[in-house]
Amino acid sequence: MRTSKVILLVSFLFLLGAFIAYRGVKAQMKPTGGRGEGLRTMNTSEQLQAKLRDFLIGAGKNDPAAHDAFWADDLVYTSAKGVVKTKAEIMQSVREEAAKPPDPNEPKASYDAEDVVVHDFGDFAVVNFRLVARTDDHGKQETSYFRNTGTFAKRGGDWKVVAWQATKVEK
Question: Cβ neighbours of residue 109 under 8 Å, at least 6 residues apart?
């Protein structure tokens, strides 16, 4: 008799734990936008905005890995000065800068994106935004603005930039 009570208690506790776990997981789940339920995945706009912000943080640190993850191997990049570059050229420049010892006199740079607009076309998307480039040269603050348009292609489940155009916004 006592064994059956223990088994009943353990069964009850197991079911209670399973129910609590189910409710906890369900509370974290959001509809995917389809008819079924499931974990909510980021839409294309959210994915690309997150990728852009991660890249801008890495670019501010002159991180070659951030550039490598962002640009497609067949990239066509047009700078604000009208210079066309490939990914290989960008990577060479970034790696050379990253290999140099830190210069304490070098101004600190940070980048942010404003007014981000994403147009999703399935396996490619166009992103336009205002780039805010801030530099701090030993207390002297300067802010520059650029309009950037990037074309992203989805390759192997990951978004890569295949074309980029930067335009300096004059004050």
Answer: 60, 133, 134, 135, 136
CA distances from 107 to 52, 55, 79, 100, 135 (A): 23, 19, 21, 15, 6
What tokens appear for 164 in the block?
Answer: 């980029």
Q: What's the Cα-to-Cα distance from 44 to each of 52, 123, 171, rounded to whole Å?
A: 12, 10, 32
Q: How many helices (H) and strands (E) does the chain have?
A: 4, 6
CB 153 within 8 A of CB 72: yes
Beta bridge partners, 77, equal 85, 164
Could you give the C-alpha distances from 151 to 13, 29, 77, in angstroms and in order?
54, 31, 10
Residue, of 4 and 166, whose pLDDT is higher: 166
Using one digit for the tens of pLDDT, what is the confidence trace for 99-108? Answer: 998 888 888 8
Which residue segments constitute the domains of the chain, with CATH numbers given?
1-41 (no CATH), 44-169 (3.10.450.50)
